[in-house]
Amino acid sequence: MSPSGAKSRLEQRFAELKAQGRGGLITFTTAGDPTFESCLELVRGLPDAGVDVIELGMPFSDPMADGPAIQASSLRALGAGMTLAKTLDLVRRFREKDEQTPIILMGYYNPIYSYGVEAFLSDAKRAGVDGLIVVDLPPEEDAELCLPALKADLHWIRLATPTTDDKRVPTVLANTSGFVYYVSIMGITGTRTAQADVVRVAVERLKRHTELPIAVGFGIRTPEHAANIARVADAAVVGSAMVERIKGGLDSEGRPRPGMVPDVLGFVRALAAGVRKARNG
Amino acid sequence: MASLNTYRSGPDEGGHFGQFGGRFVAETLMPLILEVERAYTAAKADPSFQTEIDYFAKHYVGRPSPLYYAERITEHLRRGGKGAKVYFKRDELNHTGAHKINNCMGQILLARRMGKRRIIAETGAGQHGVATATVCARFDLPCVIYMGVEDIERQKPNVFRMKLLGARVVPVTSGSRTLKDAMNEALRDWVANVDNTFYIIGTAAGPHPYPAMVRDFQSVIGNEVREQIMEMEGRGPDSLVACIGGGSNAIGLFHPFLDDKDVRMFGVEAAGLGLDTDKHAASLTGGRPGVLHGNRTYLLQSDDGQILEAHSISAGLDYPGIGPEHSWLKETGRVEYVSATDDEALEAFKSCARLEGILPALEPAHALAFVKKLAPSLPKDHLLVMNLCGRGDKDVFTVAEALGTEI
Fold first, then answer.
1. CB nearest to A188's CB, from B25, B192, B195
2. B1 located within any domain
3. pLDDT tens column, B351-373
4. Which pLDDT value is given to residue A194?
5. What gap in Å lies between CA B325 and CA A257, rounded to an integer?
6. Which of A204, A138, A207, A203 has the alpha carbon at shortest distance from A175?
7. What's the Cα-to-Cα distance from B68 to each of A8, A180, B11, B88, B368, rounded to whole Å?
C-alpha cells in the first residue's frame, strides 16, 4: 500500500496488469545516455512502445553491481554532463506529457547522499518519481534513505537475490513497497541468464512471504526470454540489452545516430509483444 | 569535541565508528558479509585461532619485526639542542616486504576456517596482491588478483611476482583503471561467486566487519612497539607517525595506543602534486564524507557525488577513500592528519637510503617526509615511532623515472 493510503501510480499499474491477466514489461535505461535530449526522446516513446514501468538509472562513477554494458552507459551519461539534478529534470520533463506511467529511479547511494537525503526526496517526489531502488542500501541501512523515502511517499523497491534465504526474506521484505525486484542470477547485470523454471521456483518462494508483485531482472535479453519470465513473474525487467541497443545506435564519436531512438523503441515493441502473448500463447 | 573515555571500543554492532563505517553492499553480498562477521567473531573467541596466527607470524612472516633506533636520521634532524629520537618500526622486513602480509595471514586462516575454496583480492601497488598470492600459494588455494591496467604498467615487477606465486592477475580496464576500479571488479567477482569465494580486502576499509578485522590483524604492529620500546627506553612513545592510503598500517600502529592520552598520532596522506591541485590522494584533508565500497568515509568526490581519481607517486596511497575508523578519529580529533607531496616523499626516500641504508617504499617515505618536519622542533627526549611499513625495491623504477635517471 502506498504510504499516503491512496493507490499510487505503481500500484495502479500492477492492478491493471493483474486485471489484464498478463505480466508487465519494465525497461532500464541510464538517464542521460548518451545525451539528455536523446534519452528524453527515448523515454517519452517507451509507454507507446509497450513499457509498463520505466526504470531510469542514476549514473554513478563506480557502479559495483553492474556489468560492462551498464557501466559504459553510466560513463557515457556522465561524460555528457549528466548529474542527479538533471536526472530529476528528465523525469519532470517526461511527466509534462505522461501522468500514468510509473518511473522508478535505480542507482547507488553516494550521489543521493551528496545531494542531501531530504532535498533529494522532496525534489524527486515533485518531479514525479514513484519509487527508488538503491543497490548498496541493504535492510541493515534502512535508516539512511529507505525509511525517509517511505515517509516522503515514495516506494522503496528492494532487491531479493538467490542468496536471500528463507530466514532472510522477511528482513528484505519488511520495508519493501511497490514491488519486489528479484535478481535472478548471482552476479552483476547483463552477464548470465537464468532459466525460467529456476525463476519460477524462486518467485513461488517469495510469493509465500508477500502479496507484493514480483518483477524479475538481470540477464533477460530477448523477447522470448522476457515472455518466459512474464509467464512466471508479475513483470520482466530488461536492462543491459536495452543499453547495448543504445550503444549500437551511436556513431564513432559516441553521438546518437538519427535512427537510434526508433531502433531501440522497435526492440521495446518486440519485447512488449513477447510479454503480452506470454500467458495466452 | 569532548574527549571520550575510550577510543578503542568501536565499531558498534552495525559496524559504525560514529557516523562512519556500516555495511553498504548489494543484497547478494549481505548474507555473506554477515557470515564473515559471525565466523570472525567465533574465531576471535577461539584461542586456537590466535595460536595459529602467532605460529605463522613468527615462523613464516618473521615477526616480531625490529624496532630500530634510526640514529643517523635522528642526528640529521637535530638542531639547536632539539630534535626527537626517531625510531623505525621495521615492518618492511616482513616476508614479502610490507605490513600487508599481517592481514593476509589472518584473513586466509579465517577463509580456511569458513571452508572457502577460492581467494580474490584487489591491489594497487601490488604489495597486497603479492602478499595475498603468497598466502594462497602457502595454503594451496586458487588466487585471482584484480589490478588496474594503469597500476600494472607502473608495477610490473610485482605483477610478475604474483604470477610466479601462481596467482591469476586480471587487468581492470573499467573506470579510472586504478585501485578503486580493481576493488569494484573484485566486488563484482564476489557477487558472482559468493558460494566458494573469500575476498581478502587489503586495507582497513570496506563493509563491516572488514575495517575492524583488518585493524585487529594489523594491531600486532602497535602491540609489538609497546613492548619493544618499553624494553629499549623503559617507557612508552610520545608520538606515532604512519602514512595513510586506506590506512591499515596506521591503524595497526595507532589502535593499541588510542587510549594512551599523552601519545600524539599523525597520519600522513599523499598530497601528490599539492593539495591546491586536483592531483592528490588526501581524502581526509581534501574530501568529504560519502559512501563507497561498503562504508561511509571521507572520499574525493565531485559536487555531484561522483568519485574522483586520486593521484600519488605512490600507487599504494593512490585511493580516493580511507578506512572509516580514520574518518572517525579525524572528527574526534584524536589523531592529527597531515600530508606530504610527491616531491617531499622523494626527498625523504633519498635521505633514508643515504643516512640509514634503507630503501623505504614510497608509501612510508611520505611518513618520513612529515617526520622530517616534525622532529626538529621536539625535545631530545621525545620518542617518535614511525612505521616503516614497506620496502622500496618495488619503487626503484618509479623513483628513477621521477629523478630523470635511466636504469
1. B192
2. no
3. 999 999 999 999 999 999 999 99
4. 79
5. 49
6. A138
7. 69, 59, 32, 5, 14
Q: Which residues of B touch A113 (CB under 8 A)?
A: 290-291, 296, 305
Q: What's the CATH code of the domain at A95?
A: 3.20.20.70
Which of B31, B180, B305 shows the shortest C-beta gap to A165?
B31
A143 in B contact zone (CB under 8 Å): no
Hey, is the C-beta of A79 within 8 angstroms of any chain B C-beta? no
Residue range of the domain that includes B139: 16-58+100-214
pLDDT tens for each residue of A102-129: 999 999 999 999 999 999 999 999 999 9
Mean of the pLDDT values across residues B39-58? Answer: 98
Q: How far is it, in rounded angstroms, from Cα B53 to Cα B306?
A: 39
pLDDT confidence tier of residue A5, bands split at 50, 70 and 90: low
Nearest-angstrom CA–CA distance, A268 and A53? 12
Cβ–Cβ < 8 Å for B155, B126 = yes
**Considering the domain boundaries, does residue B296 fall inside one?**
yes
Same domain, yes or no, for B180 and B227? no
Q: State whether residue B379 sits within 8 Å of chain A by CB.
A: no
- The predicted pLDDT at position A280 comes to 64
For residue A4, tell me if it sits in a domain: no
Cβ neighbours around B48 below 10 Å, total: 9
The answer, for B28 touching chain A at a CB cutoff of 8 Å, is yes
Phi-psi region of A116 (alpha: psi -120 to 50; beta: other; left: phi over 0): left
Cβ contact B27–A61 (<8 Å): no
DSSP-derived letter for residue A3 is T
Tell me whether residue B365 is in a domain: yes
Closest CA to B186 of B152, B220, B217, B147: B147
Same domain, B323 and B289: yes
Size of interface A-B (CB pairs under 8 A): 117
Give all strands (DSSP E) within chain A, no chain letters.
24-30, 53-57, 103-107, 131-134, 155-156, 158-160, 180-183, 214-217, 235-238
Q: How many domains does chain B have?
A: 2
Nearest Cα residue to B322 out of B330, B314, B334 = B330
Chain A neighbors of B32, CB-CB under 8 A: 163
**What's the Cα-to-Cα distance from B140 to each of A258, B50, B56, B61, B133, rounded to whole Å?**
56, 21, 15, 17, 10
Task: Name which of B26, B31, B181 is nearest A65 (Cβ-Cβ).
Answer: B26
State how far the Cα of B384 lies from the Cα of A165, in Å rounded to an integer. 52
B139 CB neighbour count, 10 Å cutoff:
15
Q: What is the Cβ-side half-sphere exposure of residue A201, based on CA atoms within 13 angstroms?
A: 7
Does the pLDDT at position A193 exceed 90?
Answer: no
Reported in sequence order, the residue ranges of B250-301 that DSSP labels E, i.e. its strands, are: 264-272, 288-292, 294-299
The answer as to whether B11 is a domain residue is no
B184 touches chain A (CB under 8 A): yes
Specify the number of domains making up chain A. Answer: 1
CB crowding B246-279: b at 16 or more within 10 Å, else e: bbbbbbbbbbbbbeeeebbbbbbbbbbeeeeeee
- Give ∠ CA A228-A232-A235 in degrees, rounded to 5: 85
Three cell numbers at B151? Answer: 597500476
